[in-house]
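Researcher: Here's a chain I'd like modeled. Treat it as a single chain, no partners, no ligands.
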Amino acid sequence: MGLKLETLVIVVIAAILSGTLMVKFTHKPSAGKLFTKEMEFTDTTLIEVDTATMKGRSFGTYGIRDAGVLTLHNLKYHTKNIELLRANKGTYKGDKLYLDGNITVNQKEGFDYSAQHAVYDKKTKILNITSAFTGIMNKNTIHGYTLRYDTQKKEAFGKRIDAVVYTAEK
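Model: Modeled as a single isolated chain. Structure tokens:
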């Protein structure tokens, strides 16, 4: 009455097949950050143009585009209204350029500003300085806590201003 070897092999094969058919495999994405880096570069100049003119020029010593957001380190930015805008880090999100660290804005005419944090809206051409700032033109000096500067109209509106302004004698 012994168990035949063939019967034992058939029972083992049936058990293995039924066990594998009952297991359901699912693919779960990992809990970590998904890789979204699109581009990485060094010492690059980016030129923004439309069909008629150059709108702006940016230079960065290191840049990365990740999930549609472009970040440039040691940014230098130039438009027809801004002679030179420099920052340790600039982040492009849509039409806005978020600036952080040692920001200086040199104008073709008017005050030169320095601050730590600012946002430049490329569409409206308005620079919003969101930290304490200093503005200098010749011997004229302005200190304040926030500033909204329209680079087209050359109008500035600040909060908590402390200024020394020299006027011409008449």
